[in-house]
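User: For a benchmark we're assembling, each entry needs the component sequences followed by a predicted structure for the full assembly. Here are entry 17's components. Please fill in the structure.
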Amino acid sequence: MASGITILDPTNESKPATRQTLARPASIKGLTIGLLDISKPRGNLFLNRIEELLTERGAKVLRYSKPTFTKPAPVDLRQEIATQCNLVIEALAD
Amino acid sequence: MSSLVPVLPDGFVVIVKRECATCQMIEPVLKDIAACSTPLTVYTQDDPTFPESVSAIHDSDLAVSWHNNIDTVPTLIKVVNGKEVDRTFGWLAADWQRITEIAELGADLPAMRPGCGSMSVDPDIVDKLRAKFTDSPVIARTVQFSDAEDEFEAMYARGWTDGFPVIPPTRERVLRMLTGTTRHPQDVVAIAPPDLVELTVEKIAINAVMAGCLPEYLPWVIAALEAVCNDQFNMHGVLATTMPVGPVIICNGPGTRAIGMNSGINAFGQGNRANNTIGRAVQLTIRNVGGGRPGEVDRATHGNPGKISFCFAEDEVGSPFTSLATERGIPLGQNAVTVFAGEGPRCVVDQLARTPEELTNSLVACLQTVHHPKLVIGFDAILTISPDHGRVYAEARWSREKLIAELTERSMTPGADLVRGAREIAEGIPPHLRDATLPKFRPGGILLTYAGGGAGLFSSIVAGWANGAIGSDPVTRVVGS
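Assistant: Structure for entry 17:
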């Protein structure tokens, strides 16, 4: 929903106004990928399979989980992932 | 434009509001005017049922009041063939009688009673009206945040801040900022490094809002940006260097006092809005429009806190010396900014000197340490004399020229003490200068200024970056309107 305040762009407008996604890595080989289980039932089954597939492709996988899917990830957990991983996959399952 | 400019009908036009006691007082007068042959149109700003004595049009969006520059109610305007030919405001019986040509109009009322402020100039809504009604050539792209986004966090996330929060540059705020200059919003002030993009008055105003400037600071921000965005100051190099320098802005002229700049206690420090936000607006503009960000083009090893903002005014009233701006060719009474690629300030303590010679020797000893005691000529410096030190020179009647000459003479050092390896220090000047005798600074390399609080036998030194064609030269620009 875009119903917040409107401001005038302070930049030279050479980049799109929306937030940019990071460039995709050319390969995941050798990268550390975090798998964040948001603690919904059976999310772990989905992530187990993802871990197998990523490991086959040469990535190192680290597993994390949120205390509860009803709240945002705690700051400590976000910082832990940010310092330990190159990429993160957040899984939703039911 | 968001609405058509309302055309006033011929005859007499009166703008009133119920909240105004003078408007209420003249109700009988309106009835008398309505009874004469010239048509009367009354606009009411607040209560559509007021005045009760005559019918009125509700100026509900204040378009009539805004477009006709109504500052005070009641205002009486005479319109002939669609053109305003006469106007009075408040209640001045003689004026109302003259314009309406009704001799006894309001004869039973006091001869004069001031009116009240028009709702169209109410400070709480004037910015919204300006944004709505002004045909402003503001063309910046708009960015709409989502309702789930905190706007302050959103501006951090987009990389638009210097690490402190910035004020959201809404259209209303930017239009208000633009009232601080007579320049057109699309005037190109400079080509902003490092991305070399056209820097317009509008983009400066947006960043000045974010920095927290008042509109009257805008001409100073514009002048400072003109001064840094050129080959002489070399803003690109100042960003890119690993040395800890940023633009230090020295303001001169009566305007520094008009906008409330600080040249006294804590002149380099926190607390004064003009000092801090003018410097910050310059840096935010370079960051956001020019694209100069730390870790990207800005490669400073340590940087310095003055790269958030370092801007102060000279105390021209208290100074025993001619001002820096005067020295640099600006006529007395003109407002000007001088920009200098400088690091943070350092203190010179001398609480014992009572003669100008003793004090000058102390200043020289400290100035010799600028960047390295064995490096000379290549770096300029700002020297800011405090009132307590300034008094020593005032009593001895030393002028700016005398002090600079003495500083230069007393800094002369034999090349043998400065060359590489001398004094068991590898750093130093090239060996071929061994037989020369050299001053610390090149001619013009000391920017003498006067500022600071009235207590403290201290002066201050701000060291510069590499000077001349390979680095940066100080630049002075007149502050326009």
